[in-house]
Amino acid sequence: MDRNPLRGRLFGGGPATAERRAEWALRALAVGVLALIAAMAVTVLSKAWPSFAHNGLAWFGGGGDVDSQLKAMINGPTEPARYIYHLRAWPLIWATILTSGIAVMIGMVASIFAAVFIVEFAPAAVRRVIDPAIRLLAGVPSVVYGLIGILAIAPWVEHNLISTQRKRSVVYVVQLTGANLSVAILILTLMIMPIMVAIVVSALETVPRSWTEGSAALGVNRWRTTMRVSLRTARPAIVAAAVLATARALGEAIMLAMVAGSRGFAPNPLDGLTFFYEPVRPLAATIIHLKDDLSIVPVEQTVYAMAAVLLVSCALLSLAGWAAKQPMKRYGIRA
Amino acid sequence: MTTTTPALTPPAGAVRMDRKRDSVRSWPLLDRIAWGMCWTVGIGLCVVTGTIVLFMAVKGVAYLNPKLLIEHPNASPNQASSGGFLDPIEGTLLITAVGIAIAAPIGVALAVWMSEYQRPAGLARAVESGVEMIAGAPSVLLAIFGLALFARPALAFLSQTSAGGSVYGKSFLTAGTMMSLIALPLVVASTREALMQVPAHVREASYALGKTKATTIRKVLLPSVRPSVATGVTLGIGRIIGDTAIVVFLLGASTRIEGAGGPPVFSTLRGTGETLTSYVLLNSPAGEGNAHEKAYAAAFVLMGMVLVLNVIVMRFSAARSQDEPSRWRSIVSSIPWIG
């Protein structure tokens, strides 16, 4: 057989030509998909440019109330020369960091426990239940999570956890309601746990049996064996799980738009417990929040700027996730 | 023949793990606490999932009445007169159909190219990371990219054009196209995984019979991976049904499905509408409707669809395989992103 069937005619008769056409068609499709991705990056970044250009690096900084800046932009003049671009997006970025960061930290610890439970301790009957449960948890649409959060959890938090005193103590700064950082983190943790549990479990399952048996033979109990042998081997997978889950958490928009309080406010950790009851609005949720004002050019460009921040962070995280998984290949483990 | 073989039992003492000797009671306190945490979190996950399903079922049974499923919605501030959600259900089905009609063939073709041809190698690697990037991109990002893409005059035929000449960019076709990007990585991953598991001698046998590579793919490989393609498509449907961001930006959020003029089917496809997810969002306190009974009822229908799809995937996929690692790997690849 010809080693390189592509070196030849593309048109004309015969099975060899049909062969070439098939490969070319598939290759064109692959190039098309790549082109679409490139177009996405270019479109988002170029549309985002005016917002970054007007604000410089201060775009990422704090200063003033971000909600009133956005309002000024929405109500601003319509002549291109007098567009208002002023934006200090730190509260939104801080909210994104807080929600995804805390959710991933809590989720990571919980997922490791859950994964060890599934691999080591769960009786067969529980195993049969937990596997579909995790699939289902991953499949629940985020709008349903949001609905449960806003209609069931938020009112409960407002009535039972936030005291009137606490509300009054910050009344001149921000209004505390049930939709706040704590509820957002709670639900976000639940939403990112399935992927983390699944990644860690599939890594633990591929740890060579003889390694754990060697440890068990030395009289080490099952928890210590898991900690010292299995989890250590699976460390790259745990890092990958955290990184991928962070990317998911950054991009979660609908649920956070519903339950996070939808206010461009930067909670201060020094406020103590009140910190967790303060409303936030992460970047992705802000994009949803501004969906009806996209016909206003500076607002549209600002929204693309937020999307650009998300795009770049997600691309970096996906790169980091790929890099984190590399050491696993040394053990011949595909995770 | 009535000879019976004695049951094979392992000799005493050769049992792999002696439960009594590895009793948790003999562990140090810290290890016992950790053991307790494992149980708590593991059982907790099951309980939370059960609670969500039960909660939605209770709310759904309380608020869903059959009339809601067959009535058209009305824009009304009053819950009693705002009608049902027939249009959102139709919208969900329509957008899923459009998305899968695009994602399935392209996904299978990409997977075939990535596992059977991969020439040039650099391009194959680039496509692989490209697909991975789409899988990791938040859907809100795809949504606003779609908004920029489909507002181009060259793509005006996919949606409506206003009197002023500006392209609206919102329709079932545009939203469905972006939805196909959500489903694409799932179809690709599932098909590719299956193609890689087809042993090389199957291909060689076909070549030995004088078949070309293209014929081998069409007549031998694709039929053998059909169940995996179906799994990927089902997972893709689940994603599309559950997505809200793309619908919010690209479907126009009209209360009813409104055609855009032209040939009958094409008119609807170019027109605007609403899906169950955007209906839930709109009727929740976060939206304008604030009709939480309707939102619960629609969310219940949505959950029902997700449950059915989950059962289908569980029945017909690697989920049934007894091999634990491959089953969990299939779960990993079935969760490209949340929500």
What does this protein structure show overall?
The complex is a heterodimer of chains A (335) and B (339). By secondary structure, chain A is mainly alpha-helical. Chain A contains 13 helices and no strands. The longest helix of chain A is centred in the first third of the chain and has 41 residues, at 15-55. Chain A starts with 14 loop residues before the first helix and ends in a 5-residue tail after the last helix. Chain B is 65% helix and 0% strand. Chain B has 14 helices and no strands. Chain B has helices at 29-63, 66-70, 86-117, 121-136, 139-150, 172-197, 200-208, 213-224, 226-242, 245-250, 264-270, 276-283, 292-316, 324-333. The radius of gyration of chain B is 25 Å and the shape is flat. The chains are: A mainly alpha (335), B mainly alpha (339). At the A-B interface, helix 1, helix 3, helix 4, helix 5 and helix 7 of A face helix 1, helix 3, helix 4, helix 5 and helix 8 of B.
Helix and strand arrangement:
The complex is a heterodimer of chains A (335) and B (339).
Chain A: H1 15-55, H2 66-74, H3 90-121, H4 124-139, H5 142-160, H6 164-169, H7 181-205, H8 209-217, H9 222-233, H10 235-251, H11 254-259, H12 283-289, H13 297-330
Helix pairs in contact in A: 1-13, 3-7, 3-10, 4-7, 5-7, 7-10, 8-9, 10-13, 12-13
Chain B: H1 29-63, H2 66-70, H3 86-117, H4 121-136, H5 139-150, H6 172-197, H7 200-208, H8 213-224, H9 226-242, H10 245-250, H11 264-270, H12 276-283, H13 292-316, H14 324-333
Helix pairs in contact in B: 1-13, 3-6, 3-9, 3-12, 4-6, 5-6, 6-9, 7-8, 9-13, 12-13
